[in-house]
Known about the structure:
It is built from 13 helices and 20 strands. It is an alpha+beta fold. Strands 1, 2, 11, 12, 13, 14, 15, 16, 19 and 20 form a 10-stranded mixed β-sheet that branches. The N and C termini lie far apart (about 60 Å). Belongs to the bacterial solute-binding protein 5 family. This is ABC transporter substrate-binding protein.
Amino acid sequence: MRSRHNRQPNGWAQWGIFFGVAAALGALVWTGWAVLGHHSILPTGTASNTQQVNIGVTDLPQSLDIRPGGATTVSGSDEASIDNLNATPSADRLLLGNVYETLVTIDQHNQPQPGLATKWNISDDGLTYTFTLPSAVTFSNGHTLDATDVVWSLQQAQSAENKSNDTGDTTNPSDTLGNLASVTNPDATTVTITLTQPNPTLLRTLSGPLGAVFDAELGDGFDYATQAAGSGPFTIADFKAGKSLTLARNDTYHGTKAASATVTITKFDDDAALSKAVTDGTVDLAANMSGKQAATLTNDSGVTVSKGTTTSKVLLAYNHGNDSLLSDEQARKAFRYLFDANAIADAQSDSAGLLSGPISQTEPGYEDLTSLFPHDVAKTQEMFAYFDPMYLTTVDLVVSEQYRSIGEAIAQQAGQLSLPPVQLEVLPEAEYAQRIAAGTWAMTVVSMNGTGDAGLFADPNSMFHYNHGEAQQAWAAARAATNDTDYESRMKAYARLVSEDAAADWLYTRACLTVARDGVSGYPTEMTDQRMDLSQVQGA
């Protein structure tokens, strides 16, 4: 007869077997669900303590100083070019949202979302913005971040903006803090911005460098060009100017921790080198690759090519100066009927869709205006027949090497006319910039990259020299809007007016191309030319 003492271990053993089998079955069910549903086997949001992700790009900053007026924001930076208006500097693209936080952020659909500010309220007259900040936020150096830092940062931004305006160094009329009356902090978690006039694009402005929050306690000795003390999910682990940038997870970050311990971004000489790096496994991800190069990888096994949208608009710009044929409305409209924008857009590997006005598909106020000037060579010939042949002198189409193929397509289409003749010149970047600055051109191909940069057509001093009183009034009306609904409707009216007057010939919206090795996840694919959220990217 067995004692009670001898039977007890057998009972525990039976329970142990039961729990072991149950755990094993549970694991099998979980794994099956994860595989069949393409879910991660790790719990969502789990941060790897050791994982490193390598990203390849073709542009990296020479400086980490993204402060307004800093090295990466001044005119003539290493990434600025006259045929790529308002392009986002790579320092802004990589640091905003990753190292430095902005009051407001923009999602991949180009919509304002809470950034450092958890919420905001706008008064009915559009003059007062009240932002609420979270408590217990710190910079990566341990300093407390509160409303005092926000006020100080905005004051510094306004000062830099005023200096920029004084020197005439402005490009995008929507990318401005506007007429600030005051910036105050009633308490540690509240910031109030008061304006003298409405600024319907203020929230978007606060998602960029002008809305970045810096540590007010840092002294003059802090080197912003090589260091950073932000409040974002990453810190700077290593920086080699123009060569590489390594981000390390900020373990004190107040939000969801970065998924990977480190992210290293390396610059490659060109797209061909970048393509080789992603296919041979040197990098896990290639960001903002050219459409032409990305197209060569679409059928490669082991990589995925993603095509996202941007607000970058490629257009055939017209010189409206008094000495240009394009100062004549009839001539501009005739050319718009002549050029087959649809064929040009279809031929471009970086095209995200046909465009027919100054506002892209993801910007407030967009409207499909393709029906305004359908391709019609006969109508073009009829319109030019009204001109005295002596008036139809040679039209200089000047482009940089970047837009050679588009320039050649335009020149070929223009060859269908006997008059006026269109002469194509493809120039090196430096010589091209000189020609544009001198105004000795009639047509050129450029891209405009910012949300709200349609306002350049309301500025007679812009490179286009477009001076249209009604357009300027329509733009001013849009800028006076006190709410999103009015702003969008007024921008739509402005865009239609400018397009109907053939201020330019808009061709297409540019796509952004991302190439990732299989198994890489959490990476952004939309608007990566402006912002790259790397907080959730994970390697294979």
